[in-house]
Amino acid sequence: MTDVNRCFRLAARPEGMIKDSDFSWQEEAVPELGPGQILVQTLYLSVDPTQRIWSAYDSYLPAVAIGEVMRAGGVGRVLRSNLPDFSPGDLVYGMTGWQTHAVMEPSVRGPRKLPPGTPPTMALSLLGLTGLTAYFGLLDVGRVKEGETVVVSGAAGATGNAVGQIAKIKGARVVGIAGGPAKCAWIKDELGFDAAIDYKAEDVKKRLGELCPGGIDVYFDNVGGAILEAALAHLAMRGRVVLCGSIGDYNNPAGSSGPRNLMNLVIKRGRMEGFLVTDYADRFGEAIGDLARWAAEGRIQDRVDVVEGLENAPAALRRLFTGANTGKQLVKVADG
Amino acid sequence: MTDVNRCFRLAARPEGMIKDSDFSWQEEAVPELGPGQILVQTLYLSVDPTQRIWSAYDSYLPAVAIGEVMRAGGVGRVLRSNLPDFSPGDLVYGMTGWQTHAVMEPSVRGPRKLPPGTPPTMALSLLGLTGLTAYFGLLDVGRVKEGETVVVSGAAGATGNAVGQIAKIKGARVVGIAGGPAKCAWIKDELGFDAAIDYKAEDVKKRLGELCPGGIDVYFDNVGGAILEAALAHLAMRGRVVLCGSIGDYNNPAGSSGPRNLMNLVIKRGRMEGFLVTDYADRFGEAIGDLARWAAEGRIQDRVDVVEGLENAPAALRRLFTGANTGKQLVKVADG
User: In the record, what terms sit under GO molecular function (chains A, B) (predicted)?
Assistant: First the structure.
């Protein structure tokens, strides 16, 4: 029985893009299980922009303390259990952190058992906080209606691609903004978006005007900055801007310059609203039911982008901020 | 019978602060009244930030055409009438424009008769679009509740002072942001605001933190820019930002730099929403009833700041952008 836990502990508060040296690699004995605890072997880790926030400062969660194992959601298999509801071999998800072996005890952040038949990666992606963020952001905050025009940025990212696919299921017209021809081809040709804008090659504001002649009813913002400003410029009457977090700002504590055209919210009677998916915890069951059914019916695809090896977790997190990932970024820690 | 109409016609699209030379003074014969028209002698003109927009570009209304009489709301007395509902001597309000004699015909923008006993100036201020903007912005968009903390910028301006007074009537704690000690003393000592911040002398962000330790539940924004950013920094959980138009931007077509901290809308699950009071036209009666009753009960004051003479209309409009006015800016055109 291997009782060595390999982990990354936070070594320094990152400044700008995170560096490998912001984390310290440790190999430690797995502690004895106490009453009410389980030992979980991590299989996959979720890689999310918000982890950059957790590493740096207090927000909706306190910052990870220096010396603490880096916080992250993950899926793993139960190795030992002092809890009656969990047995060795069970697949569970929750806040495992950046480590190979997590000692977990019941809390709002897991562990929870995966529904039978759920692929471990889908539990972190479409059926995890990523898919739930897309679901509640688009449907509850954005209140999209059939026939409306939806624009989503970061459209080839984890949340963005789900937003676009859910919007199509709801009968909306969908324009995705992504970086590069491969991502644009994927969302358009594979996922069925009505149009794609390559922000690296095209004038986003001009293209939005051409592609959304009736204006944008719902803009789902994953990036902030100039693209948010371009979308505001084409807001439809009573348009909604869903703020999910602006990835462009996470490595820039001063924040990027905000949109200069908020006056358009007045002229168009628009609404801009932020949200956190965790506020919808009491409705997760309803959403997971919809998402799992759409996946089973082939109406929504769940693409994951897997980096192998816990030792590459910092590099995997950087991939989000350079736009290297297509679909949900994961780290594979061990074979299931 | 004097049949000369003195008026300002738009001569040029203003750039930056409006100049006298953007308007051309004309003395013209009053045209013969057609069927369904009335002739109104203007008594007072409303002076509003949005007139700067009307002079420059299409927005929620088309821009005033070059050569057209400058658009403005006003109150006047009927001199002649070809409409059965209006008689000489009636006081009416509507879009008179910058002129001494307006030929008006029934439309959504007036003419309408003043309710009996209404002072002509109050019809343009507390009981006009100014007071209605405060009323619907605070109560319907901001949804203020008893015991909440409300912050309003431009607090000694026409809309701002009404926002603060209505918020007090609704049981909120109110902090006003205004320019200079006289305005701050007025809103605090005369109008009953709980606190005032002089943005010309104090660090607004720091003071908001001190004065709103539980955060800002409703921020009513009249100015945009750095003050909007400061308010966002102190937004309470589920705080609302009411965008009424940012006076700082009206002379700056590129727009001022937007707030760099929209991420706070995500962290605090906040909402920022723009509105135009004209959308509430079917509820004006209800609001005017409340406002008139509060005024009669002495619970709300209506302060007007009157510039004498139509020839000073451009200068009166400039006063809004230099912060010279306290309360509602009007131009007096003739004795009633």
Answer: oxidoreductase activity, acting on the CH-CH group of donors, NAD or NADP as acceptor
